[in-house]
Predict the structure.
Amino acid sequence: MSEVSVASRLQGSGAYALELEGIARHFGALVALSGINMRIAAGERRAVLGSNGAGKTTLFNAITGDFLPTAGRIRFFGEDITDLPPHERIRRGLRRTYQISQLFKGLSVLDSIFLACRGVSRRRFSVLRPTSGDVNMVQAESILNAVHLEGDRDALVATLSHGQQRQLEIALALAGAPRFILFDEPAAGLSPTERRDLVAILNALPKHIGYIIIEHDLDVALRVSEHVSMMHNGRLFKEGTPQEIEADPEVQEIYLGGKHG
Amino acid sequence: MTVLASTEQPVSAGTVIEKIGAGNIVLLVLLVLYPAVASNFFLAQIGAYSLILGMIALSLMLLAGYGGMVSLAQISVAGIAGYTVAVFGLNNSGVHGFGWPFWIVVPFATLIGAVASALIGLISNRTEGIYTIMITLAIATAFFYFTQQNYSLFNGFPGYTGIRAPEFWGVAWRDPLPFYYLCLGFAVVTYAAVLYGSRSTYGLTLQAVRDNPRRMRALGFNVTAHKVVAYFYAGVIAGLAGVLLVWFNGRISPGTINVAAAINVLIIAVIGGMRHPIGPFLGAIVVVLMQTFAIDIVGAERFNTLIGLFFLVIVFVSPDGLLGLWGRIKPHLAQESLRSLR
């Protein structure tokens, strides 16, 4: 038994950022996820589509360790992380954003990003004020620019617009050298202009950072991803390029409600 | 590199004032000059006592304002430090009184208070909001009854008497004027530490934990540890205040740390406001003045009624206490000055 688990540990190849093997999650009698197999190459950008309740966010929670899968293994850059607590996964470069913004309303934008950078470094308990030359502060400034929030550097988070809060949500995930990010509906509630901005932000991310993006808006998903996985009732039922998915009759039937057909 | 660069820069008077804040400097000058106009009674019973209560309320403000944890056990922490001074220093109750020198007793008592506070934080950590208030109230109540019934350590109902502030550097620190400056010194140091610390890395993490513990966990922070450390720091402040309190009263007994005293600390912090560390001191002055002079106005039996009414008015008019009131009046004053310009 132990030999098998050692073998499966070594099986994972470094070429994949994320490998999911037979992930299942049950809530009592409810089957939220079952038999999810997914391999995402390093640097790959994947969109996960699916109707409400398809299990997309549950899948994210299983990958980040917010709760453990009922069955299955998760490998992150070849390492089995199935049993690691969430903060250990964060140390390894896995990040996520939330469907509903999880921000610090009483802090300024820059301080929020600074803390996110500090979170994976030491000196988290420092009682000294960070100087402007502090390495985490410099990182925070550059992330600020990357998500187009430089104009709101010192604004209180509570005073930001919804769109700016979504941008900050992304900024927090970019802190501290991420290798792979899970974006949970970053475009939810954004105006068309803000959506264009979001697409620009995602496309400008460094090439080595791969991600999975959950997105209802097919137009956004198709412009920021190379591969698309379709989920339905807790299962993955189709994978392909954006063009293939868009043209697939079954997808149109389930996801688009046959509006193209 | 950056450290070198910042030390090489000449510090001009302008940046010093900017860093400390003009308001803080004016306030400090006024407090230093206060003995010139104050009688001994106003120095000790009003001045020093307000500063001590302000420090205990400051420890609550640190927890509640920055950490979102309302603890009613801060008076117990001060009491633990006070009892430590009585037991390990000198008292004339004929129980314990090991006679340790003050320069060991004071840091030791403060440390004991801080550790006790951290323990309280560890216990109440799993709770939030009103449940934190309930569990810390339970701890404060239990500690009160324990001190009342335990004679081997706390000398029960009578507690300890005859505890004196030390004499050193040729100064009798229990005299009103030196004692006022002693309290002012401690109060300024703790106030400045909280004010500075609020913008430190740790201060920011504490406020972020208050706003969104879930996200902090997702960023790799150990939320529990950060909360317990906050209780430790608050315990240092309350512990120092407890040492001063036992010197001020010359005695400590269960009556010093009963439930009324625990709630008094909360009232002070709420009346003053918990947005800024100056709030608790404002609240302390108001409450001490009322406790002292309400007897002359409404009679000895009713001074709590007066404080209660004032508390109600404050909570109704300004949930952020006197600080919030000032925050609301300030823009009106600014407009007034614009009108006069016209």
